Each structure stands twice: as C-alpha cells, then as structure tokens.
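Postdoc handover notes: sequence design on the structure in folder B. Input tokens:
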C-alpha cells in the first residue's frame, strides 16, 4: 500500500470515527477500511469513465467544496440538437451526513454526494460491500426510502461488483435480472409503442442530447452504467418515463383483485399501500408477481387509465429481498445486487417500496406526497397540466380522491378548472361560507361542511359534498360545466 493510498484511508477513517455510530469501535475500524477501499476504487473508476454511455467524455478533477477535498465531475455528450455542446457538471463531496435538518427522516452518511452545478436534486451514492451490509439490510432500506420520500434527494447504491468487476455483456449478463422476467413480447417486438407513450417527442426535444440509454439497453445495464447515464443527462422526467415503461412491459392481464396478486401483497403487508395507491377512482388495474430468484420478489402493478394520461402514479412497484439460507454466498450477493439495482431504477416512481425483513409495508408509511415530477403533456396542454398539479399540491387530503376523478373526467375537454377555497360573500362583503372547490360562473360548489352547503344552496348554487362518491360527483360536475 502506497503512502498516498494509506493517507486517504486514514483521513476517511478519522472522518467516520468523529461521527456518532451505533457500531462498536472494532466494527467501525474493520468495516471502514473495507468500505474505504471500495470508495477509492469508485473514484478511480470515475476517472476512467467506467460505465459511461457511448460517445460521452468524462473528466474528474480535484476540487475543494466547503473547505473540504472534493471533485468536479463533468460529462460532455457532444453537440446537442442545436449544435451547442451538451455539458453537465457535478460537485462531488465525500462522507456527507443527511438527516432531519435536510428534511430526511432517517439519518445516513452518504459515501458520495453528487450535486449538479446547474441546479437540481443531489444524488446520494452509497458504495456497499456485502460483508457489512448483509447485516443491515433493513437499515439500508429505511434510509433509501427516507431519501426517496423526502423529494429532495435521489440515491444510488453500488456494490463491489458494480464498481470493480467487469461490466455485464451478452456473454456474461446480469443474473438474476428482474427486468428480463415476465416481460410481454411487445416490449421486444414493438418497443416504440412504449417509448412513444412515456417518452413523447416534446420530452425528447427538451433534452440537451439524446437519451444516454434506451430502455432495452437499460434492461441489461449494471447499476454503475445506469448511474453514469443519469449523470450524463439528469432528467427525472426521462427516468420516470423509463421506469414506467418497464412496469408496463411487466404487466399481465391479471386484475389486481386476483388471488395471485392479493396473496403476495398481504404477505408483504402492502394492503394500506395499495389502498393509498388505488384511491377511490375506478380504473383497470392489473399486475404481475415476479420471482427473479429465490428470496427476491417483485410486485408490479399498473393502472392502465393513469398510464394513458402519463400520470406519475400509474405504477406501483414493491421490491423485496430476503436472504435465502440455502443459497450460496455468491447467489445471495447476486440477488442483493439486483435488489439494489431495482431500487436505483424505480426510485423515480412515487409509489415505490424497497423492503426486506425488518423494513417493509408495516414499517413504511403508505402516505405519498402529491408528485412533483411529471412526464409533461405536449406544450399546448402543459399549462393545464401544471394547474392540475397545483390543485393537487394545495388541496386537503380529503379532496384528493375527487381531484383525481375530476382530472380523469376532464381529460381531452376544455372544461374550466375549479377554484380552491372559494369564499361566498354576503352583500356587505362578509364571508357566509367556504367551498373546497368552486366554479363561480356556473355557481357550482363542493363543500366539506353541511352548514356551508346550506349557505351556498340558499344563494342559488348547486352543491356536492366531499363525502359523496368521487366518481359520481366528477361525472355530475362534468355534465354541469359542459356548454349547452
């Protein structure tokens, strides 16, 4: 070991020991050395550009960030559609604590924090060694889910094989591969139908360069290759569209009410999560229960109606890993690696659950905040889509099911959108009542309080209650606001 190499490990060790830990001192010393080697290997691979997309140039140079040693990582994808160079740069920090002060409920110390210099979500990168992380799978799942649910960070977990070993090839593919099982033939025969649904032309036109990985390439790519592709073109909408395509490709005709889907959902304690995902609006929901390998299972569900609308909640995916005591060490590591890869790719879905014994459906809150990242409608409809997003963002929880039903009923119409928190004023300007949603020109209101309903009715308005079935209320309102 060179003195420079030893010095880097010593400095990393000192940083870790200075922070609180639940592990004993001996555990910290033993495991920090192993992880430090993987972290240093990762820096070497960044310099080499390992896993970078074809045609992309990667440079890594030393930098100082907030007074500490760091790096500046730059991706140059060549001339973009307008002829100007497509360049993306990231500030790279090491050993960054992330917790409640960053609005993340579960504390973790990310090995690397990649922050885009042009603005956007940072990516917390964890270089995970199996020997240490096999004993803390539940903690890892909790921490990654906390980052995803915060809406403020992305995460990426890399194993030793991802960083150090050879990249997967057609001769030596990923095994197991949870993206290659249960796939409908159309994904291979007519991939353009999936691409056109979730990667509309106006989304592709908004990028500085073409997607670094097409879905069929991503299907076979390692976590490192996926990370490098995201860093080259950091579009969350693009990657959400990628994840949605895979969910759609692994959907089967099985309805969500079938025993083949309800049984694993119950076993994984997902009942509350599925109720939250489905809401109260009727739709065709189907799915598939996948077992890429013993101990690794995936519950993949899709809402066909929401897929038609490119809604972020169109898919639900639970990825569960439970080490198989009958499997060899090599088999367990391979399954764990695929569990990590699935989490990396599907974190772009609002309704994702990464689970393992000790952290799963019963421990993770089913509540999901209104989505902020959308695969936008075409530009002519983008303003209306943003208006629906704003309505959902500021509406109370009890109004969300009705808003979802209204958005579906308003699809492909020019019906006016409602006003929120509308106040009915008396002749002297005093407030007589308040409606959660209102169409003042049509004198239509949705209220939560019967007293408010009486006041609106007395003033000549038609009223509905938030307690009424959302689907029937939306249908009645659509008929009421439609021009005669």
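Designed sequence:
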């Amino acid at each position: 070991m060179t003195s420079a190499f030893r010095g880097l490990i010593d400095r990393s060790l000192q940083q870790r020991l200075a922070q609180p830990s639940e592990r004993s001192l001996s555990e910290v010393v033993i495991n920090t050395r192993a992880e430090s080697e993987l972290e240093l290997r990762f820096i070497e691979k960044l310099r080499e550009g390992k896993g970078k997309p074809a045609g992309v140039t990667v440079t890594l140079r030393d930098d100082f960030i907030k007074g500490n040693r760091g790096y500046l990582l730059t991706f140059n994808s060549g001339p973009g559609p307008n002829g100007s160079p497509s360049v993306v740069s990231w500030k790279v920090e090491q050993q960054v604590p992330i917790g409640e002060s960053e609005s993340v409920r579960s504390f973790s110390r990310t090995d690397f924090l990649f922050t885009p210099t042009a603005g956007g979500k940072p990516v917390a990168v964890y270089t995970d060694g199996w020997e240490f992380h096999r004993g803390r799978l539940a903690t890892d799942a909790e921490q990654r889910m906390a980052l995803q649910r915060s809406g403020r960070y992305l995460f990426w977990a890399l194993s030793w094989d991802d960083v150090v070993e050879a990249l997967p090839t057609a001769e030596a593919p990923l095994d197991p591969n949870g993206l290659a099982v249960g796939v409908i033939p159309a994904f291979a025969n007519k991939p353009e139908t999936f691409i056109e649904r979730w990667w509309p032309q106006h989304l592709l036109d908004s990028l500085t360069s073409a997607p670094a990985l097409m879905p069929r390439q991503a299907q076979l790519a390692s976590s490192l290759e996926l990370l490098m592709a995201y860093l080259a073109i950091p579009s969350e909408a693009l990657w959400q569209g990628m994840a949605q395509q895979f969910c759609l490709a692994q959907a089967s005709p099985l309805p969500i009410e079938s025993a083949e889907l309800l049984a694993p959902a119950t076993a994984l304690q997902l009942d509350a999560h599925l109720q939250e995902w489905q809401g109260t609006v009727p739709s065709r929901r189907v799915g598939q229960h996948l077992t890429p390998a013993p101990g690794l299972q995936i519950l993949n569900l899709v809402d066909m109606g929401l897929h038609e609308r490119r809604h972020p909640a169109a898919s639900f995916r639970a990825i569960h890993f439970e080490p198989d005591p009958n499997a060899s060490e090599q088999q367990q590591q391979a399954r764990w690696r695929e569990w990590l890869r699935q989490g990396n790719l599907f974190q772009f879905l609002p309704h994702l659950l990464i689970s393992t014994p000790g952290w799963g459906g019963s421990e993770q809150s089913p509540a999901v905040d209104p989505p902020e990242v959308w695969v936008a409608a075409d530009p002519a409809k983008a303003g209306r889509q943003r208006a629906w997003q704003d309505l959902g963002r500021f509406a109370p929880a009890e109004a969300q099911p009705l808003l979802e039903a209204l958005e579906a009923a308003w699809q492909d119409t020019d019906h006016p959108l409602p006003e929120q928190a509308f106040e009915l004023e008396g002749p002297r300007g005093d407030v007589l009542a308040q409606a959660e949603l209102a169409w003042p020109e049509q004198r239509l209101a949705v209220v939560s309080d019967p007293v408010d309903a009486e006041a609106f009715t007395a003033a000549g308005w038609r009223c509905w209650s938030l307690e009424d079935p959302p689907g029937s209320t939306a249908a009645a309102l659509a008929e009421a606001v439609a021009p005669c």
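Context for whoever picks this up: Confidence is low (pLDDT under 50) at residues 1-35. Don't rerun without checking with the PI first.
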